[in-house]
Design a protein that fits this description.
Layout lengths: L1 E6 L5 H12 L3 E3 H11 L2 H12 L5 H12 L8 E4 L5 H13 L6 E6 L2 H11 L6 H15 L1 H8 L3 E5 L4 H14 L1
Parallel strand pairs: 1-3, 1-4, 2-3, 4-5
The structure holds adenosine-5'-diphosphate.
Length: about 180
């Protein structure tokens, strides 16, 4: 079970990823969660990441790739994982391919969670996390369109992409995700 959840901020990767992780008995690895932990702990990595996060910009590829590399090497990730929020740029997708190559664990599937922008803005405004100010949200959506959306084509070309309609009822979306994973 080696799955990437790809989708805009607010597309429900966190909520659905947690359900999928418990369904399949593998860890959910969310780059945003790991970065927030680093910020809270005051580590050097956290100090480097904070300004970019507050502004809704991407944290540098090197920082995030190093952090994910460490996490994927931990024992609980050896049987698989659900990746949420990583990769988010072409450089990160290439680094992930290389990393999984080294570990002889190719990706199984990339799920593209599709939600329309109107629903996203409503969901994020309701969530109220520290970086959910209107300006940071707008910036995260722009950064997604610019840096992360090219990954749709990247994974399509590798035959790994499955689009899933991620609008509507949480349980119905979960069912669609499991169907998409098992049909692959
Ligand atoms: P959301 O999906 O709502 O944007 P996340 O928790 O995934 O929330 O990310 C929060 C912030 O953490 C991002 O705006 C960005 O600054 C940083 N971040 C998370 N994942 C990555 C990543 N893979 N590369 C660079 N920055 C990241």
């Amino acid at each position: 079970m080696k799955i990437v959840l790809l989708g805009a901020p607010g597309s429900g990767k966190g909520t659905q990823g947690a359900e999928l992780a418990s369904h399949y008995g593998v860890p959910k690895i969310a780059s945003g969660d790991l970065l927030r932990e680093a910020v809270a702990s005051g580590s050097e990595l956290g100090q480097k990441a904070k300004a970019a996060m507050d502004a809704g910009e991407l944290v540098s590829d090197d920082t995030v790739i190093g952090m994910i590399r460490e996490r994927l090497n931990e024992p609980d990730a050896q049987n698989g994982f659900i990746l949420d929020g990583f990769p988010r740029s072409l450089a990160q997708a290439e680094a992930l391919d290389q990393l999984l190559d080294e570990l002889s664990r190719p990706l199984q599937r990339v799920i593209h969670m599709q939600v329309d922008n109107e629903e996203i803005v409503g969901r994020l405004a309701a969530r109220g996390r520290a970086d959910d100010t209107e300006e940071a949200i707008r910036n995260r959506l722009a950064v997604f369109a610019e840096q992360t959306e090219p990954l749709v084509t990247y994974y399509e070309q590798r035959g790994l992409l499955t689009p899933v309609n991620a609008t509507g009822d949480i349980d119905a979306i979960q069912t669609r995700l499991i169907e998409a994973i098992e049909a692959a």
